[in-house]
Specification:
two-stranded antiparallel sheet, Beta-lactamase, binds zinc ion, 293 residues, alpha+beta, globular
């Protein structure tokens, strides 16, 4: 698809089959996105418009735990509250059990201690959970609420559900909430809105460890499949199992990382964000930046 076609497509009505209809010719990527039960969103920060909305119904109505897509957010909450220093690091013990759930890290053994940026790049559960012990009272829940995790987003012109954030929790349940595993359920639109907010912070010196962490996640972490040639993507995957046993795979991010133009959010059924969601995100980034069909 030529870039001109992309933008004429972008101005057409939103809907699950918008891209496939407008593109005129199908590609293997189309089939992958079209057939996947889920949603894929591309939001243009300059025009403040959703350019691509595959699965608008799912994006608006599905509620899922956000998993590790909230690590940059919960660590940002700790950083800006001064509860963790940017250069503070702790070794990752790799094994973690919280409130009966196995939350062992899936990254390779690391020969160095883990700071905030590395906790995001390597998606380190142990370090994030350890830092999350420092939240005071309902600080994290209030932060999630300010991000809009219980509010409709108005990013699509349609009815949408609002997420839910558990309040008044502490200890291991609070740690799980900081990992996005329990105690917080959101729509893909709400995650898109939270990442849109982070995209406004890229020039804030205090935000740099979070930004570097998200760049690392795409350069050498679980988000590698979301890379696009010539642009640096900042993002994060998530992999969660719903209470009904379904596997949900996430990717959320923006690019270019230092001068963001678009936010991409993917939520689909799949065992891992790395394998199921990041490739779809990469496809959307390449469509936008390279005009690839
Ligand atoms: Zn770890």
């Amino acid at each position: 698809m030529r870039r001109r076609d992309f933008f004429s497509l972008a101005s057409s009505a939103l809907g699950a089959s918008t891209m496939a209809r407008g593109a005129g010719r199908a590609s293997p990527g189309d089939a992958f996105v079209e057939n996947a039960p889920g949603c894929a969103l591309l939001f243009d920060l300059r025009s403040k418009r959703m350019l691509i909305a595959h699965g608008a119904v799912q994006a608006s109505e599905w509620l899922a735990s956000p998993g590790s897509t909230v690590k940059p957010l919960s660590l940002w909450a700790l950083l800006r509250a001064g509860r963790v220093k940017p250069d503070e690091s702790i070794p990752c013990p790799h094994q973690l059990r919280l409130a009966g759930l196995s939350m062992d890290c899936s990254h390779p053994r690391l020969p160095f201690p883990v700071n905030i940026a590395r906790a995001i790049s390597y998606s380190c559960n142990c370090t994030t959970a350890q830092f999350a012990k420092r939240f005071v009272g309902d600080e994290l829940a209030q932060f999630y609420l300010r991000l809009g995790f219980e509010s409709t987003t108005q990013l699509l012109q349609r009815n949408e559900a609002a997420g839910h954030v558990q309040k008044g929790i502490s200890g291991e349940r609070l740690q799980l909430q900081a990992l996005g595993e329990r105690g917080v359920r959101v729509t893909a639109l709400e995650v898109a809105k939270a990442y849109r907010h982070m995209a406004t912070l890229v020039h804030d010196p205090e935000f740099q460890p979070i930004l570097e962490g998200m760049e690392g996640a795409v350069q050498f972490g679980t988000g590698r499949a979301a890379q696009v040639a010539g642009k640096t993507v900042a993002g994060k995957t998530g992999s969660v199992q719903t209470e009904r046993g379904l596997h949900a795979a996430w990717f959320a991010g923006f690019a270019p990382s230092r001068d963001p133009e678009v936010v991409v959010t993917v939520l689909t059924q799949g065992r891992s964000g790395a394998e199921a969601a990041a490739p779809i995100a990469g496809e959307l980034f390449r469509r936008y930046f390279l005009g690839e069909s």
